[in-house]
Design goal:
globular, TIM Barrel
Length: about 325
């Protein structure tokens, strides 16, 4: 790994024992033989994961429980206790390889105050770098003012919030008869991009101007519609007033990762829209190949200063990593 550019990756998943049932909804659609390999990779924190990282020059990863995890838990009390259980489990794994792993907390968004408390515990006591939340919780979106207390705490802790995909609460008629469109292929991006826009147009970033919300999968397509959001929101404002044009929240409050989109054309377009400071390398391990992601970023048509920002500089700044890490 010595000759390869240093890389930090932020959307790298594991599965803690006892969390399998939450993920069944999507894992069941993966061919059986791949499922077995995935389960092995998700459950491993040593040989397999470290070898993949070493082979691809990935120095440091932020680990997160695979989706939908706590967001699919219907009991508020269980959501709270299982989030703690997950975060303590992860802290134990990080302690074995502290120079290679850090963590994003799982949070019980069923209860905004409990979510804020668990975030604070995870950051201040366990040393986590922020949170990764799998979208809505049973159809509740986080632009709802009842989450303001949560956003206030996140902003005070000055850590990022990774908004990760999840299934839509209900499928729109346009998806009927096309199960292949739902899930990771298309539906998750629509769902997650929409949720990010709800935060933007819902005024969350006006109320908490220092929030950093990370959206994966090359920003779930949002960077490519940035110009149009300004143009059409100006034409159809529906009485909504924002402090800035929609485009101005990109790069300031919304930042993106390259997880699961290994296209040079998409990368250069996204950097053009977001700014080089707001695009961060990630893999989406083990659902995407670390080999493919590493080769993609190493061969991308970027100047070396920009490549260094995308590969590790932006992550080090946003995660507040010591240079030793
Ligand atoms: Mn993912």
């Amino acid at each position: 790994m010595n000759n390869r550019i240093k890389k930090i990756a932020l959307e790298e998943h594991f599965m803690a024992p006892g969390f399998e049932t939450y993920s069944k909804a999507f894992i069941q659609h993966i061919p059986k033989e791949q499922q077995e390999k995935l389960k092995m990779q998700l459950g491993d924190f040593d040989e397999i994961r470290l070898a993949e990282m070493d082979k691809n020059g990935i120095d440091y990863v932020v680990l997160s429980q695979t989706g939908p995890a706590i967001q699919a838990e219907s009991s508020i009390q269980l959501g709270i206790s299982r989030a703690k259980e997950n975060n303590d489990f992860l802290a134990g794994k990080i302690a074995k390889h502290p120079t290679r792993f850090c963590g994003f907390a799982a949070l019980p968004m069923q209860d905004p105050k409990a979510a804020a408390d668990e975030l604070e515990r995870a950051v201040l006591q366990l040393g986590f770098k922020g949170a990764l939340v799998n979208g809505h919780t049973h159809g509740t979106y986080y632009d709802d003012p009842k989450f303001d207390a949560f956003w206030e705490r996140l902003q005070a802790l000055d850590v990022p919030f990774y908004l990760h995909p999840i299934d839509m609460p209900a499928l729109p008629p346009s998806f009927a008869g096309h199960p292949e469109l739902n899930g990771a292929t298309w539906g998750w991006g629509v769902e997650t991009g929409t949720h990010a826009l709800r935060l933007l147009f819902g005024g969350v970033f006006d109320r908490f101007p220092n929030l950093k919300v990370i959206v994966g999968h090359m920003g779930e397509g949002l960077p490519f519609l940035r110009w149009r959001l300004d143009s059409r929101f100006a034409a159809y404002p529906h009485g909504i007033q924002l402090a800035h044009k929609p485009s101005e929240y990109f790069g300031r409050n919304l930042i993106i990762t390259t997880s699961g989109v290994c296209s040079h054309a998409a990368l250069t377009g996204a950097i053009g829209e977001m700014g080089a400071q707001a695009v961060l390398f990630s893999v989406d391990y083990p659902y995407e190949s670390s080999d493919t992601a590493a080769e993609f970023i190493e061969t991308a048509p970027l100047d070396e200063a920009t490549r260094a920002l995308v590969c590790h500089g932006n992550a080090a700044r946003i995660l507040k990593l010591d240079s030793a890490a």
